[in-house]
Amino acid sequence: MFDTVLVANRGEIAVRVVRTLRALGVRSVAVFSDADAGARHVREADTAVRIGPAPAAESYLCVERLLEAAARTGAQAVHPGYGFLAENAGFARACEAAGLVFIGPPAEAISLMGDKIRAKETVREAGVPVVPGGRDPDLAEAARELGAPVLLKPSAGGGGKGMRLVRDLDRLEEEIAAARREARASFGDDTLLVERWIDRPRHIEIQVLADGHGNVVHLGERECSLQRRHQKVIEEAPSVLLDEATRAAMGEAAVQAARSCGYRGAGTVEFIVPGGDPSSYYFMEMNTRLQVEHPVTELVTGLDLVEWQVRVAAGEPLAFGQDAVTLTGHAVEARLCAEDPSRGFLPTGGTVLRLREPQGEGVRTDSGLSEGTEVGSLYDPMLSKVIAYGPDRPTALRRLRAALAETVTLGVQTNAGFLRRLLAHPAVVAGELDTGLVEREVDGLVAAGVPEEVYEAAAAVRLDALRPRGGGWTDPFSVPSGWRLGGEPVPVSFPLRAAGAEPVVHTPRGTHTVTEEAVSVVLDGVRHTFHRAGDWLGRDGDAWQVRDHDPVAASLGRAAHAGADSLTAPMPGTVTVVKVAVGDEVSAGQSLLVVEAMKMEHVITAPHAGTVTELDVTPGTAVAMDQVLAVIAPEEAGHDD
Prior knowledge:
Elements: E1 4-7, H1 11-24, E2 27-33, H2 40-44, E3 47-52, H3 63-73, E4 77-79, H4 89-97, E5 101-102, H5 107-114, H6 116-125, E6 133-135, H7 139-146, E7 150-154, E8 164-166, H8 172-187, E9 192-196, E10 201-210, E11 216-228, E12 231-237, H9 244-260, E13 265-274, E14 282-287, H10 294-301, H11 305-313, E15 330-337, E16 339-340, E17 346-347, E18 350-351, E19 354-356, E20 363-367, E21 374-375, E22 382-390, H12 393-406, E23 408-410, H13 416-423, H14 426-430, H15 437-445, H16 452-466, E24 494-498, E25 504-506, E26 511-514, E27 518-523, E28 526-533, E29 536-539, E30 542-548, H17 551-560, E31 565-568, E32 573-578, E33 585-586, E34 591-597, E35 600-605, E36 610-615, E37 622-623, E38 628-634
Parallel strand pairs: 1-2, 1-4, 2-3, 4-5
Antiparallel strand pairs: 6-9, 7-8, 7-9, 10-11, 10-13, 11-12, 12-15, 13-14, 15-22, 16-17, 18-21, 19-23, 20-22, 24-25, 24-30, 26-27, 27-28, 28-29, 29-30, 31-38, 32-34, 32-37, 33-36, 34-35, 36-38
Helix pairs in contact: 4-5, 12-13
């Protein structure tokens, strides 16, 4: 067994790996960028090393600095977590050359399975069924031969980055260009492949574990069909779709896929499965790393996958065979992300002002958060994972919904409330899942408007702040009661604006109780209780930032752009593409700029035909949410009669 292991990652997965290393009695070394100097994974590791500035390319993706950190701390092995360099064959080879053990598969297996095209060819030869498709350089031709709809995928990476579903082949070239940009930004390689799209498919993956002594087992499946933008949001084990015979057949196919590339360690073989015919499954790809959703497998098998990654890397054989693997109970995981469902799941950011993470019977939280954590736009938006286990699926679902209701992350908008509603959707409760369910039902899952009690609570906090403190005589004019000399009291009102909503003037009408961390209001006989921090209020996983609204300042801002439309940043991020200049005439819907955050691109388009009168950004400009990027004067305003 190793004495010291360097964890070449950050956030919740770094914290997760450190936890197992501590249980094994192995010294852990964390690494951090300047942006993460105070991060939780830095505090929880036995020691930590600064590896560079905030951009990942200069820190977490810098092989030289990671190897130097390992050398300085006497590490014998490196655990890559997931993301960053976890599936980088060059990093695995560099570790080996430096005398370090890479806690993962051989570089050759990473290289082979990391190339989705070669991976499909390899597993096909091993007898594993694959989805029909094509590859560069004949990508467009192959897509047209397959016929719409088709799925474009980067050859060099996974996680949904760069994937594009094309239903209209007239848009094929545009979609290919966009997919290449995202693939290049995420993986440094813009090679694509195209596959036939299977309507209403289910995404089912098999966890495999292999040692260096020829033993390979599978640990059952995970259902990962609840996705948005091709990225998983809810995962569970086992799948309600599979019977024992299909589970065994898919498991054996996954084992053969692992053997075909000489695999070692923990890996996942992903399949696409027609919901109406689960016996017809197709290989999609193999992830040569630990998966985000590995906790659900751990809970139903009783195995610590990180522990077995470390043991296998240290040369130990698996201590069990396939017959010893059993699945007991049911587990479901929800990914808590810094994103705003009401704004199309665009990334968010901010400082975590108040944090409450759920616990209790059958509940596990894997998190990299702490109060004071700064959530920026440089890294992946996933903040933590909430996992629930039960003796059966209904129990696990109930526990997870309750756990999400207890989750508080004020200061950063998250998807917790959305996930809670998704888990209560009748189709999800019934297990009738497919990869398009979230997109079809999203409008009913996003919170509609701002409830009156939110404004009531925000007003109650402001009323409480105005009340005089201490004993003695109180000047009646200093009390926010609406009292006036010789007349009826005037109701006290507050101009308020919740993020993403129109401003309101709210007059409190209920009774209130305000403390440092909470506020309760009673409206029409119903009590509503919120967590609070700064301008933020939260309950049942949902959160609202309610600011004071200054109508005079707002009107002056509108006047500054009279007769024009301001284009603002939909999320905090970096401008990567600017396609126009001041004075250019543009048409309605024309692409003008691209803003990227947390590995996601968002195209800014012209709201109408007109002329660019202001352009406040250039490629590389860091922008805040709602920051003005450009101003487009309407076409009619630019002509004199």
